[in-house]
Amino acid sequence: MAKVKYYYNNKTLKYQRIKETPFKKLIKTLVFIISTFVSGALLLLILSFFFESPKEKWIKKDLELTISQYEILNNDIKEISIVLNEMKKRDENIYRLIFEADPIDQTIRSAGIGGSQKYKYLKKLSNSEKIINITRKKDLLARKLYIQSKSYDELIELAKNKSAMLSSIPSIQPLDNKDLSRIASGWGKRKHPIHGIWKFHYGMDFSAPEGTRINATGDGKVITVKSRRTGYGNYIIIDHGYGYETLYAHMEKFNVKKGQRVKRGQQIGTVGNTGTSVASHLHYEVRKNGKKVDPKFYYYNDLNIEEYERLVEISESKQKSLD
């Protein structure tokens, strides 16, 4: 109940009740309402500063859970990446060496997965930086896994054809040379027997009488049978597959035809002295992926360790080629 107020009237010499006008009552009411609202707002502000609302508590808990899950996922991706890198090392340093296969180009393995626009739709999300980061890592990991799976598909096919591959890779000397006495010149710079200048000799020369048997050093297909007055003279090229080719030059006779398939150890012709040559001999070359390589690395089916070391010593000591 509102308190009644009075005042003393000097004219009537009596106390009279104070009556408020409607306007004053309105002003008082408005002041009260505004004061109450301001006080309440200040109280809520103070409470919100020191105490969390149920919604804020839920949001904070949800954020903590999200960050925790992000860290777990990030660690899982790191662990999977470590395993994947180990698989890649084994692929390149063990499996592909066994199967004589070239490693996957590093530019393919490290290729990107799209620009920043790919993740534009994620920028509107809360914690977008973390979400974009983990999504990018996931996409990169998925790409690496795909490339590695394709690599293993290739290795599986190579394993199926391992027997054929081992039979095809050049691995014996092209003529009977168990005592190694027929090695006339090896790979490297040699003095040309006709021109008298130093040139790089891309192969190995085997001295032998004309008519000596020449054998294919691996299974394959004869792709070239030619006769020339200069250069290689009469020569044969065999495609062994898997990137390997062998060349046999300065021959006397051919025992095979172009397109014919041959086996390792099969006679393909005889030693001669044709083309640019100063003595009866066989010039032998090995090519890998179109590039000439040192033949001495491809006699492992013929020689033991001691014989191989002697072959290297003999081939490197010869300073003059026969062609």
Number of contiguous helices: 6
CATH topology of the largest domain: Glucose Permease (Domain IIA)
State the name of the first-level CATH class of the largest domain: Mainly Beta
> What share of the residues does DSSP label as strand, in percent?
15-25%
Low-confidence stretches: none
Number of domains: 3
Description:
- The strands form 4 sheets. Strands 3, 6, 8, 9, 10, 12, 14 and 15 form an 8-stranded antiparallel beta sheet that branches. This protein has a 3-stranded antiparallel beta sheet with strand order 7-13-11, with no helix packed on it. It has a two-stranded antiparallel ribbon with strand order 1-2.
- The N and C termini lie far apart (about 130 Å).
- Helices cover about 40% and strands about 20% of the residues.
- It has about 325 residues and is α+β, with helices and mostly antiparallel strands.
- It folds into 3 domains: about 45 residues; about 80 residues, no CATH class; about 140 residues, Glucose Permease (Domain IIA).
- Helix 2 packs parallel to helix 4.
- It has 6 helices and 15 strands.
